[in-house]
Design goal:
Two copies of one chain form a homodimer. The first copy, chain A, has about 150 residues and is mainly alpha-helical. Chain A is about 65% helix and about 5% strand. The N terminus of chain A is likely disordered. Chain A binds a DNA duplex (30 and 30 nucleotides) through helix 2 and helix 4.
DNA sequence: GCAGATTAGTTAGCATAGCTAACTAAATTG
DNA sequence: CAATTTAGTTAGCTATGCTAACTAATCTGC
């Protein structure tokens, strides 16, 4: 709040940017959750399923790493997905590892969720100019880079 | 993925933007949560406290609206904040309503959390050029607008 | 001015999701 | 082949989300 000029990014600006990013992420997810709940699949399950659908099969540990959660957390998320028939466990040569794969049903559910999400988003985006919509894509590029470095 | 050109925002692009926003929000929060956990205050509590600190005192219902959660959910979040002495309940003329106010301790804890968050974010932002850092602020403006319309 | 309706908040009970600690089972290593 | 390491699960805690059902206070209409 004080300290107006530092090397390249003022402390006040950084504080504000951090808070706004934090708040924006929280509120965005709360809104999207409303639509996602229609699928009967929780947000963590949906996100994990998305990795399997778009990134292909992998082990539980790899999925936990991709989702930045601990193995026990991912173990339970996968149990839920398996119970609903959205993901299948397969044995591998390494008897400790499991190979997780999205089922056809899981892929379908995920794509339906995407459809609902995009409906909400498209509606929200309609208030932006075409140019701004393009900028949003650039922003996401930047944001993804920031998150990777976080 | 097909349907390359629609009126102003192709379906494929909208799908991708929706997914990327969704995924970015999830992963951003997971990362920030790591630092926020040091405060011993959960993410929902921190977000609610932030509204009281920066937006001033208000009723439980108003806070629930601001945070986009149901009253019972906010009631419990506030109970946790009160238990830790970060928020105080005051009576109002309307006997049904409570006036929620951040305590000095709550304000201090929030600002410390901000500090930790901005440390992480500043580190992540250091990989961006100065110009990109400026753009990030502008794009946040856009994102907040999208969320308000969601 | 009081009976009934409305409004604010809480309580109870359920589910998901995060964690650590402690366990099992399988593979690797010396 | 014994000891260590690695992969995953189970158990148990906390926090957050919801709906349904409750209490208490205020407002409305006659």
């Amino acid at each position: 709040m004080t300290d107006v000029k530092s090397k390249s990014f003022s402390a006040g600006k950084a504080f504000e940017t951090a808070d706004r990013l934090h708040s924006a992420a929280i509120h965005l997810l709360r809104r999207l959750r409303v639509r996602d709940r229609e699928s009967g699949v929780g947000p963590a399950q949906l996100s994990a399923l998305s990795v399997l659908v778009f990134g292909g099969p992998r082990s539980l540990g790899e999925l936990a790493d991709a989702e930045q959660v601990r193995p026990p957390t991912m173990s339970r998320i996968v149990s839920g997905l398996e119970r609903e028939g959205l993901v299948r466990r397969h044995a591998t040569e390494d008897g400790r590892r499991v190979r997780l794969e999205a089922s056809a049903k899981g892929t379908k559910i995920l794509q339906e969720g995407r459809k609902r999400r995009v409906e909400s988003l498209a509606k929200a985006l309609s208030s932006l100019s075409e140019k701004e919509q393009g900028q949003l894509g650039d922003f996401l590029e930047l944001l993804q880079q920031v998150i990777r470095n976080l």
